C-alpha cells in the first residue's frame, strides 16, 4: 500500500472512494473489515463463551483436574464453532496445590489476617512459623538489608501498586512477588509476606507466581490483602515488635501434561503463513478466571469465528491459540515457540489478549521500521472502533512476548486496565466483572486486526530484535 | 422557645441577633452549638478512636474473648478522655463460634463457592449435607412452597438487595436471612443458603443473625456471595439439578457475660435527666467492625468528649452508651432498657449511630406532635452542617428502638448509606472504608444534637407510642 494514499484511505472509511490509487482489493479489505466490526458489535458470542467457561468449568489452575476439563471445553467449543482445523499440543506443566493459608498476629494485637499463598510457594511446618516481621517499602529496600539481618524474621514488602490505565503500576511492584522470597531468604528470613500486587481495597489477597533459586533456601511466600497490609502498618506504628504466625499447606506434585488448544481458519492463498491471535486458557484457582483470561479466550475465539464465517477466507491462515499455563510462567507460550520453531519464519504477526475486558484504545506494533507507517495505514479501519494508532514498541502480550526475539512481528491491542488489578488473581475475578459491551468492542478490534493482517501486502520483517 | 422566633433564630445562625425575642440563653445555646460544630470539624478524635479499636482490638464478636478486650478498651478510652463518670453494666450474651463453612457444587459443574455461616447457625454433619438446591426468588415464595416439597433439599433464597441512600433495600431482604431457616425447615429442607443481604459484587458473603424456633428443626444456614449466587443461577439455567455439598462447623457454647460500657457528662442543673447517644461496641467476627459499628463508637464518644470539655456543662446529663451484642439481637439495648426501667421516664431523648460513616443529611424525631416544630427550631443550628430537618417518624436506631414504646422520645440522624451494604457484615468492613472527613461531620451533628437537647426547654412527651 502506498503511503501517499493513507489519508484518502482513512477518508474512505467515512465516505466514498475519491479517485484514490488504492486497488480494488484494498478497498474490499476495508469494506470487509468494517463489516466484521459491525457484526462483532452486534454479537454476544464472546460473552457467551466467557460465561460458559466460567460457569461450566470455573477455576482451572494449570496442572489441575479442572485444567483438563477446560482443555476439553475448548476443543468442544472450537469444534462446534466450525473452525477449519482444531487440535491440541502437549505442554508439560507443574502441579501445585494451594492448600490453606492462615496468618495470625500473635502480638501485640492478636487477630487474623487475610492472606493467600503465592503460586509455587512451599508450605510452612505444620505448626506454622512464628516470628517478628520486618517491613520494607520495596524489594530494592529488602535487597539493601544487611546480610543476616532477617535471621529468624518474616520479611514484609509493603509496596503499593499504583492505578494506571496502562497497568504500568503492576510492573513496578510485581518483582516483590516473583523475586521477594529469594531476596528475603538470602538475608536469612524464615518466610515472606507481601502487600498484594493490586489496586483495590478489598479484603482479598492477590496470588500470582513466585520463583525460587536453586542455591537459595526455599521459604514460604504469601500475599496480604491491602487492608491487612494497612493493619500491619498501623500495628508497627504502635509497636515495632509485631509477631506473626504463618501456617500454609501448599504442595507441589511434580509435572503433568496440559495442552495448548488451537483453531485455524485456513488461508485461501497463503495457507502456510500465519496470523496468530491468542489468549490463555488456564486461570488461577481462587476466582473463575473471567477477566484473566476468560475474556481473552472469548475475544479471540469470537473474532476468529467471524472470519471463519466469511464467504471468502483471507489469504493467510489465522491461528487462534489458547495457551496452557500462562499463569505458571508463560509455559504454554514457550512450548508453542519451541514446537513451532521451524515455522516461526512463517508467522506474519502475533498478538495476545490477556488484560481483561476493558475497551481497546490503541494498537501498538513491533514491525520493521520501514513498514510501520504502512501497517498503521492498513489498520486505519480500526479507528472507527475507538482504536488509535500507536507506537512501534509492542511486546504482543505474555505468551507471544518471546516471539520478537525470533523475528516474529507482534501487535499489542492496548486495553483500558484501570480496574484490572482490582480483581486480578483474586477470588473476585468472576463473570460479573466482565462488561459485555466492551467485550464486543474487543472482538471487533481483533477481528479487524486479524483480517487486515491476513490480507496485508506489507512486508513486516525484519523487526528490530528486542534486547 | 416560641415558634414566632424560628425564622429569626435561623437567621441568627448566619448573622447577628436582630431584636429577636429569644432569650439570651437561647442565643448562647446556638453559639455554643456552632462552636461545637466547628471544633468537631477540626478534630480527628473519632477517626483515631475507630483506628484504635479496629487495630488494637479488631474483630470483637459478642461473647468472644475479643469482646471482653473491647470492653476493657472502651473503659480505658472513656476514662482517659476524662468523662465525669465511666461504668459498665453486665449483659448476658450467647457464645457462638463461626468455625468453617465450605460449599461445593458436586454436579453438574464441580467447583467451590464462597459462603459464610449465618450467625447462630448450627453445624452440618461432619461429612456435610449433599442435596439438590431449590431456588426461590424471595422468602415469601419459599413460604408459599407446598408442605414437604423441600424434603431432602437445600433451599436457596436468591433475593437481591437494592441500593438506596436510606438503606431501605436491606429491610426488604433481611427477612430471608433471619427467618429463612425456619421457613425452609417447615417445608422439609435440610439446609438453607441465601444470596447475601448486600449490595456489592464482591466475592465475600455477608453474615448476620438468624433465628430458630423451638418447635421447628434447626437446619444449617449460610449466605453466598453475590457472584456465587449468580453462579448458581447460571448453573440452574443450564440444568435444574444442581447438587451442593455444604460443610459447616459453627458451635454454640451457652452464655457468658458481656457489658454495656457507659460514660457520662453530668448535667449542671438537671443531672437526673438524660440525653442518650449510643453506638454498639461489638462487631461481627470476619471484618474489624470499622463501619459497623466502630464508626458509631468513634462518633458518639468524640461528640461526648467535646461537650465534656466545655467550660460549662449543659443542664441535662449526656450519657454515651456503648452497647453490647447488638449484632446478636439488640441484646445490649434490651438489657439497658430493662436495667434502667425506672429511669426511662427521665430519658429526655435517645439516638444511636449505627449506619457507618456516611454524611448525615437529615434528622428525624419521634416526639410529641405539639413539640415537633419547636424541636426542629431548636435543631436549626445543625442545618449549617448539612443536616436537613426531617419527619416525626424516627425509630432512633437499633439499640434504642425499644425505648419509644416506653415513652422515650428518640431521634434518627440519617446517614448516607448507599455503600453501607457493600461492606456490612463482611471481612471487608475495615478501616480503609471509613472516610475521616464524613466522620467529622457526624461528630459535629451528634455534638450539636446532644448539647441542644441537654439545654432544651421543649417538653417532648408524651410521644405517640409506636405500634
TrEMBL record, chains A, B:
Gene3D superfamilies found in the cross-reference section: 3.50.30.30, Zn peptidases (3.40.630.10)
Peptidase M28 domain mapped to chain residues: 260-448
Keyword field: Carboxypeptidase, Endoplasmic reticulum, Glycoprotein, Golgi apparatus, Hydrolase, Lysosome, Metal-binding, Metalloprotease, Protease, Secreted, Signal, Zinc, Zymogen
Pfam families in alphabetical order: Peptidase_M28 (PF04389)
InterPro entries assigned: CPQ, Peptidase_M28
Residues that span the membrane, as ranges: none
Cytoplasm among keywords: no
Subunit structure as annotated in this protein's UniProt entry: Homodimer. The monomeric form is inactive while the homodimer is active.
Designated name of the protein: Carboxypeptidase Q
Lineage, uppermost ranks: Bacteria, Pseudomonadati, Pseudomonadota, Gammaproteobacteria, Alteromonadales
Amino acid at each position: 500500500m502506498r503511503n501517499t494514499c493513507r489519508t484518502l484511505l482513512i477518508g474512505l472509511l467515512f465516505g466514498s472512494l475519491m479517485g484514490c490509487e488504492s486497488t480494488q482489493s484494498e478497498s474490499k479489505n476495508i469494506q470487509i473489515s468494517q463489516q466484521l466490526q459491525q457484526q462483532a458489535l452486534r454479537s454476544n458470542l464472546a460473552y457467551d463463551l466467557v460465561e460458559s467457561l466460567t460457569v461450566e468449568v470455573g477455576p482451572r489452575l494449570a496442572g489441575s483436574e479442572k485444567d483438563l476439563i477446560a482443555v476439553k471445553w475448548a476443543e468442544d467449543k472450537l469444534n462446534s464453532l466450525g473452525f477449519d482445523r482444531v487440535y491440541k499440543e502437549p505442554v508439560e506443566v507443574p502441579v501445585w496445590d494451594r492448600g490453606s493459608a492462615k496468618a495470625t498476629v500473635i502480638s501485640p494485637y492478636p487477630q487474623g489476617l487475610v492472606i493467600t499463598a503465592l503460586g509455587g510457594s512451599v508450605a510452612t511446618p505444620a505448626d506454622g512459623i512464628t516470628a517478628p516481621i520486618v517491613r520494607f517499602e520495596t524489594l530494592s529496600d529488602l535487597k539493601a538489608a544487611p546480610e543476616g539481618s532477617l535471621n529468624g524474621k518474616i520479611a514484609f514488602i509493603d509496596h503499593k501498586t499504583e492505578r494506571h490505565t496502562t497497568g504500568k503500576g503492576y510492573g513496578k511492584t510485581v518483582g516483590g512477588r516473583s523475586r521477594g522470597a529469594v531476596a528475603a531468604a538470602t538475608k536469612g528470613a524464615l518466610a515472606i509476606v507481601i502487600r498484594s500486587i493490586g489496586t483495590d481495597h478489598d479484603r482479598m489477597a492477590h496470588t500470582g507466581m513466585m520463583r525460587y533459586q536453586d542455591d537459595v533456601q526455599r521459604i514460604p511466600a504469601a500475599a496480604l490483602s491491602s487492608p491487612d497490609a494497612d493493619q500491619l502498618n498501623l500495628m508497627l506504628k504502635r509497636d515495632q515488635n509485631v509477631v506473626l504466625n504463618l501456617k500454609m499447606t501448599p504442595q507441589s506434585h511434580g509435572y503433568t501434561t496440559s495442552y495448548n488448544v488451537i483453531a485455524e481458519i485456513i488461508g485461501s492463498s497463503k495457507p502456510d503463513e500465519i496470523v496468530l491471535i491468542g489468549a490463555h486458557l488456564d486461570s488461577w484457582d481462587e476466582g473463575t478466571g473471567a477477566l484473566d483470561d476468560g475474556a481473552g479466550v472469548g475475544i479471540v475465539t469470537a473474532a476468529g469465528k467471524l472470519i471463519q464465517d466469511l464467504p471468502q477466507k483471507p489469504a493467510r491462515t489465522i491461528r487462534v491459540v489458547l495457551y496452557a499455563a500462562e499463569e505458571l510462567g508463560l509455559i504454554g507460550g514457550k512450548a508453542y515457540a519451541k514446537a513451532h520453531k521451524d515455522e516461526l519464519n512463517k508467522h506474519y504477526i502475533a498478538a495476545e489478549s490477556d488484560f481483561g475486558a476493558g475497551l481497546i484504545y490503541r494498537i501498538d506494533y513491533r514491525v520493521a521500521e520501514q513498514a510501520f507507517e504502512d501497517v498503521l495505514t492498513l489498520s486505519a479501519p480500526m479507528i472507527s472502533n475507538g482504536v488509535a494508532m500507536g507506537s512501534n514498541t509492542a511486546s504482543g502480550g505474555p505468551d507471544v512476548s518471546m516471539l520478537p526475539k525470533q523475528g516474529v512481528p507482534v501487535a499489542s491491542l492496548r486495553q483500558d486496565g484501570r480496574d484490572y488489578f482490582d480483581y486480578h488473581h483474586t477470588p473476585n475475578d468472576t463473570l460479573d466483572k466482565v462488561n459485555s459491551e466492551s467485550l464486543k468492542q474487543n472482538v471487533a478490534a481483533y477481528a479487524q486486526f486479524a483480517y487486515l493482517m491476513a490480507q496485508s501486502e506489507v512486508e513486516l520483517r525484519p523487526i528490530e530484535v528486542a534486547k
